[in-house]
Amino acid sequence: MQGLIQRVSRAEVTVEGHVVGKIDQGIVLLLGVEKADSEQQVDKLLHKVSNYRIFTDEQGKMNLSLKDIGGELLVVSQFTLAADTRKGMRPSFSSAATPQQARQLYDLFVDKAKAAGITVATGQFAADMQVSLVNDGPVTFNLAV
After folding, report:
1. Contact 13, 74 (CB under 8 A)
2. Which of 29, 39, 95, 112 has an alpha carbon 20 to 30 Å from 70's alpha carbon atom?
């Protein structure tokens, strides 16, 4: 499971011109699911996303997590994160989960994040989405579990 996180001051996802998910200060998570992933990876990634210290404290150091600041989370399915780009000039998606498995684990991640008390917005699974965000910093990390 791959999670690309970006610290944002605001973000939104639109599908066919309609806003389907919107947050203020928090994290945009681009979520890629691979064949070998299970609920265990969901739990590990959720722990990392919610506790990773990427927000600044009063001294300007990255010491605060999403939970610490009461930030919001925008989860966007990102099939292309599962690509193998090591060879050639075209990505291979042989390790990517099937759409059914990816949808199940994506939904599970969102449900568990909400159950943990995080304010969550989402994109629309498997849709052609436009993601607009203000990356604060910029701060971006690739979290693999």
Report:
1. yes
2. 39
- Sign of the Cα torsion 62, 31, 124, 118 reads negative
Q: Please, which residues bridge with residue 27 across strands?
A: 7, 73
Of the residues 80, 85, 98, 130, only one is catalytic, namely: 80
Flag whether pLDDT at 144 surpasses 90. Answer: no
Count of beta carbons in the 10 Å neighbourhood of residue 95: 13
The answer to whether the bond into 99 is cis (omega within 30° of 0) is no
How does 16-42 read in b/e, with b if 16+ C-beta sit within 10 Å? eeeebbebebbbbbbbbbbeebeeebb
Residue 124 has pLDDT above 90, yes or no: yes
Q: Which of 14, 79, 101, 141 is catalytic?
A: 79
Q: Is 119 a catalytic residue?
A: no
Catalytic annotation present for 85: no
Q: Mean pLDDT, the chain, as a whole number?
A: 97
Give CA–CA dist 10/32, Å, rounded: 22
